Amino acid sequence: MVQAIQGFDFGSLPLPPEARAAMARVRDPGRWLLENKARSFNQQLAPPDGSGVDCARCGNKGSVAVVDEDGPRLVVRPCVCRSRRDTALRLKACGMLDRARVLSFERFRTDTPLQSRMKELSLAWLEEPKLPWLAFCGQSGAGKTHLCTAAFVQAVARRQLPGEYMLWGSALREIRGEPPERSGALLARLKNAPLLYVDDIFKGRADLPVSDWDLRLAFELLDYRYGNYLPTILSTERSFPELLRLDEAIAGRLRERCGKYLINITPEPAKNYRFRG
Ligand SMILES: [Zn+2]
Q1: What pLDDT score does 205 carry?
Q2: Cα 155 to middle of ligand 1, angstroms
Q3: Which site from 85, 99, 138, 150 is most exposed, i.e. has the minimal number of CB atoms within 10 Å?
Q4: Is the peptide bond before 14 cis (omega within 30 degrees of 0)?
Q5: What phi and psi, each to the nearest 5 degrees, are found at residue 37?
Q6: Domains of the chain
Q7: Cβ count within 10 A of residue 104
Q8: In angstroms, what is the span from residue 200 Cα to ligand 1's centroid?
Q9: How far, in Å, from the CA of 110 to the mean position of ligand 1?
Q10: Rounded to the nearest whole angstrom, what is the distance from the C-alpha of residue 150 to the centroid of ligand 1?
Q11: What is the 8-class DSSP label of residue 16?
Q12: What's the gap in Å between 231 CA and the centre of ligand 1?
């Protein structure tokens, strides 16, 4: 009878938490202390970091304290929410967090074979071991911006890449308006971004010429990224033949780095899905 009681596992009894804690404290006071320290660290709430990720495990600090068996000692490790948090902060830093929620692959409508093909290609691009360039050229309304955004967001999330987003027209105005040292720094940031999404490059009426300044800047940016094999996503309302006419060197580099990931959408009113009911 005594033996049976000695062999009984008291840990399996439905004891109240205070009693369990007291037993743990008696059994191994050093470990009990470390566990308490870990718990109080993990319960501390961090001020909001703007990621919108809410995690009870780490109190939104992005790291958790655990007792390492080796010692035992207290170690701080990244929380399971860390990569989600980092992705959200990266997207927020380049102004894409809100758009990322709306312009996802799941929300992209594939009503036409062209849209299915565009989506397939964007998803295949994401699977490439070394990201090539991805470009959608031609008629607006087929969902170019939607898919470019979805591909950009997924690349930032899966590869943990810091990305930069550049809306061509407003970025150019910004670069022009800054004093030289500031505009130089801004351009350097875009040139060196581990992933860059250039949205609506050479926007403007097809019959109006693109200024030499715009072309020079586009060449400087894209030639640098071409030479350094830096992944780039690009959308433009210009068709690929138009790009070739505008600047053969830019178009040539685009074609070479994109390979099969360059889609040229030929004008046809039915392809403009924005105006569909
Ligand atoms: Zn967490």
Answers
A1: 72
A2: 22
A3: 99
A4: no
A5: -65, -45
A6: 28-81 (no CATH), 94-275 (3.40.50.300)
A7: 14
A8: 37
A9: 36
A10: 25
A11: -
A12: 30
AA letter at 88: A
Give residue-wise pLDDT tens across range 24-48.
Answer: 777 888 888 899 999 999 999 999 8
Task: Give the containing element (helix H, strand E) for 137.
Answer: strand 134-138
- The whole-angstrom separation of Cα 75 and Cα 267 is 59
Distance 78 CA to ligand 1 centre (A): 8
Structure tokens at 217: 């800047």
65, 238, 225, 37: which is closest to 137 by C-alpha? 238
Q: How many CB atoms lie within 10 A of CB 125?
A: 22
Q: How far apart are the first and last CA of the chain?
A: 80
Rounded to the nearest angstrom, the distance between the alpha carbon of 62 and the centre of ligand 1 is 5
pTM over 0.85: no
> Measured in angstroms, how far is the CA atom of residue 34 from the centroid of ligand 1?
20
Query: Which residue's entry shows tokens 């720094």?
Result: 185
CA dist., res. 135 & res. 123, Å (int): 13
Paired with 35 in beta bridges are: none
Distance (angstroms) between ligand 1 centre and the Cα of 264 equals 43
Q: With DSSP H G I counted as helix, E B as strand and the rest as coil, what are the percentages for the chain, rounded to 5?
A: 55, 15, 35
